Amino acid sequence: MASKKPNHVVVMAFPYGTHAIPLFNVVRRFPIQAPSLTFSFFSTSKSNKSVFGTSSNNNVPSNIKPYNVDDGESFIRHPKDEVFFFIKSMVEKYKNRVHSVYGGGDMMIKCLISDTFLYFGGDMADQMGVPWVSFWAGGPCSLSAHFRTDLIRLSIPLGPNDIEGREEEPMDFVPGLSFVKIGDLPDGVLFGGWKSELAVMLHKTGLALPRTAATTMNSFAELDLPTLEYLKSESVKCLPIGPFTLTSQNLPHTHADPHGCLTWLDKQNPTSVAYISFGTMTTPPPHELAALAEGLEESGVPFIWSLKDHLVSQLPDGFLERTRKRGFTAPWTPQERILKHNAVGVFVTHCGWNSVMESIMAGVPMICRPCFGDQRINCRLVSDVWGIGTRVKDGVFTKDERMKCLDMIFSEEKLREKVGALRGFAKHAVGPNGSSTKNFNTLTEIVCKD
Fold first, then answer.
1. CA-to-CA distance for 142 and 226, rounded, in angstroms?
2. pTM for this entry
3. Is the pLDDT of residue 301 over 50?
């Protein structure tokens, strides 16, 4: 009797930040090509709830099954501390959970897909005898920085906490990163400590990249061809298959507007509103939030601000009341839909990669105030390479700087022309003969075909 063909794909998500949902949006496209396969999606219970929503969610293919990975101590409250705690034991957690589902049935598995942060996916795939595909939640440039961490450390003989006065030195010895300055590097590559859980994880991530059958990402080739070609020459096979805003159907619970943001925007003039959001993991310190609010108030610009409830107390006294006729705050906002609204004229952002891609696809210029990780590199791309936004001077909000940035964005039509041109390239990339379409076909061959 012929043995049964492997018909399972293991998917392991990194459960923090905006990692799990983009990975799910990649996986959700495969059942169309291979309806006979089962995709087992491993993440923490909290992460899986954010991805899959309620059990009545009919927008999730029936052959994608969620499995919860232990997230450790529930008493940890600060998001960063929770991430660091999880990283310490995540190798064991994922291996044990996958084993508990499949036992000795590795012969059922035909491919392993993981977030690139889960570098141990390569070892697990080797043990199973299957290809390993990784998903990078950022762009090619930040991936290249992690891939070349050892080269960067050898070429710039600094202590891990000693870059003062050298922040603006270029990284021109790494192909594709000539526009990047030392101070743009993600924490843990050169500064910020090399021994933290996060830095060690990212270092191992970079070293593991050549082992992948493919590394896919939410981008499109035309956005950064030199870096992609360099990585390819170093045996890192990158397959950009985005922008996801054009290739992935929104989950119903991420598309909702519970606070009425869009209704408020409907009453505003075209390209008149500043949309402000700094992501889910961090926010500027209280004095910068106050300066941002003061600049908004004095500028007279209408605004919609994604601001968590516990941060409202950090705004100047009476700010919300004084600006209530032209301002709107909500603890959660449907970002993609807001950016696409014709009333929005500028995006004040932390420069997380997904936010940058969504802003490009909405044709909205950006004011960048990066906080950590790859956000400084993304900010440099937005302001200096693509010319579709501006960076906050010295990376710190002041009232005057905020007003200066707003004036520049709203008066400089070339920014909108440039972001519109990038949007055009992106639309072509996902067309029938586009680069992202071809890359997804290649990815499907690796993941799904016999």
1. 13
2. 0.93
3. yes
